[in-house]
Amino acid sequence: MKKRLDLTGKVALVVGAETADGRKLAIALAEAGADVAVTGGGPQPGEEVRLHSWAKEIWSLGRRGFEPPIDSSGPAQLEALKRRVITELGRLDILVEAFEEGRGPDDATPTQ
Question: Most exposed: 6, 22, 68, 73, by fewest CB within 10 Å?
Answer without folding.
Answer: 6
